[in-house]
Amino acid sequence: MAEKRTVAFHTLGCKLNFSETSAISRMLEEEGFDKKPFEEQADVYVINTCSVTDNADKECRQLVRRIQRRSPDSMVVITGCYAQLKPKEIAEIPGVDLVLGAAEKFNIAKHLAALTKGDSAKICSCDIEEVSGFNSSWSVNDRTRSFLKVQDGCDYNCSFCTIPMARGKSRSDSIANVVNNARQLAGSGVKEIVLTGVNLGDFGKGADGNKKHEENFYDLVRALDEVDGIERYRISSIEPNLLTNDIIAFVANSRSFMPHFHIPLQSGSNSILSFMRRRYKRELYAERVALIKQLMPHCAIGADVIVGFPGEDDKAFQETFDFLHSMDVSYLHVFTYSERANTVALDIKPVVPVHIRNERNKALRNLSYMKQQYFHQQHTGETRKVLFEGYDKAGMMEGYTDNYIRISTPWRAEWVNELVDWTI
After folding, report:
1. pLDDT above 60 for 2
2. 204-229 per-position pLDDT tens digit
3. DSSP-derived pairing of the beta strands 151-152 and 171-172
4. Which residues contact 153 (CB under 8 A, 6 or more apart)?
5. Do 12 and 110 share a structural domain?
6. For the chain, what is the domain count?
7. Would residue 279 count as lying in a domain?
């Protein structure tokens, strides 16, 4: 019997990428491949890339060089957003054998079968406008938490973003399929599902890219709440203009949706939001946060914010800082603006010097730390349920409360994937 070919994976970027890497991994295992850790020798290495920041591009190159040093005869496959946006650039990296764009990444087994090491890098991509269809995918992380993809692509045109160029039109799975996937995950022992997508609140547009909403996100969360066996759901990220009052009210009274929202803000200055082509003003954001805290005072709220966007002068940054300081949010994900090819933001002036972008990033990360500490202190002494994960980190284990407070404690095997009452 021929020895199985081995494959190893590395994922850069978002939860969506992790769910898709898991799906590709399962497909190749069904084709007879044996999965290996990325640090070990393998016949094929698959790198699923992001291209939100310059750092993701650089990291991809570094990984390829590392593979070349360790295993020069192995096949190297690059897929993901970077592969769709800059396929020729990637194909020129020494050691890369195959570049798969958005439409081809789930056909990887077919492409590998026709590939020979030593040939020039093969590019399998297409015009992003031609990308349609929806591929269900989910990740299983030690059978505790799963990132479940329910939506892909984006029809928005934010001036800084390359994601629509990398992932195509907004399209979704059906509610029936998502519910079936959730039941399958429950049957495998998963206790928590994180719903993921590029523009999650836009859920419901057909897999053919039809602009009409056949279903909607509110209908989806109501259907998922009825699935037996899943103890917890989290909504990974949802635009403030798509986070409706009905969704907030449903989560507040839900059986299994956790009191935890992640709502991108990007800027607390309405003029910068306009430059960014965001579809809301800061006043709407404040209304959403106020309603959440009215219905769920214990709810965790995370916010994305970009510093150093073109046109962000000292006054605009101070507006953002003061607005976030005043908001009852629990933590921030702070991104330093980086120029992306073919985006409208490149034409906006004046450009903010990089050292000022970095200073502003540090200021907001400090604010985030203080907000997180304050949120934790508010709940000190409370008893909340913690779902512990199956990682043994030097004799310690970690888990999260319903409202996303991370708990660390000495390892106890019997607590893995169990909901434990915990006094914070």
Report:
1. no
2. 987 665 667 779 999 999 999 999 99
3. antiparallel
4. 131, 164, 167, 168, 169, 170, 171, 198, 199, 209
5. yes
6. 3
7. yes
For 337-417, list the strands marked E by DSSP.
Answer: 383-388, 396-401, 406-410
Tell me, rounded to whole angstroms, the distance of Cα 170 from its chain centroid: 16
CATH number of the domain that 291 lies in? 3.80.30.20
261 and 179, same domain (yes or no): yes
Res 393: pLDDT: 83
> What per-residue string of b and e applies to 258-275 under the rule 16 or more CB within 10 Å gives b?
bbbbbbbbbbbbbebbeb
Distances (CA, A) of 242 to 214, 270, 290: 16, 18, 16
Q: What is the mean pLDDT of residues 191-199?
A: 96
- For the four alpha carbons of 294, 296, 218 and 12, in that order, the dihedral sign comes to positive
- Asked if 330 and 227 sit in the same domain, the reply is yes
Look up tokens 């579809």; give the residue.
279
Vertex 296 angle, CA 293 and 302, to 5°: 60
Q: Is residue 18 part of a domain?
A: yes
- CA distances in angstroms from 53 to 82, 340, 378, listed in the order given: 10, 8, 35
Question: Rounded to 5, what percent of the chain is helix, strand, coil?
Answer: 35, 20, 40
pTM of the model: 0.91
Contact 182, 230 (CB under 8 A): yes
Say if residues 379 and 424 touch (Cβ distance below 8 Å): yes
Three state DSSP letters for 292-352: HHHHCCCCEEEEEEEECCCCCCHHHHHHHHHHHHHCCCCEEEEEECCCCCCCHHHHCCCCC
The residue written with tokens 């850069």 in the block is 12
One domain, residues 197 and 249:
yes
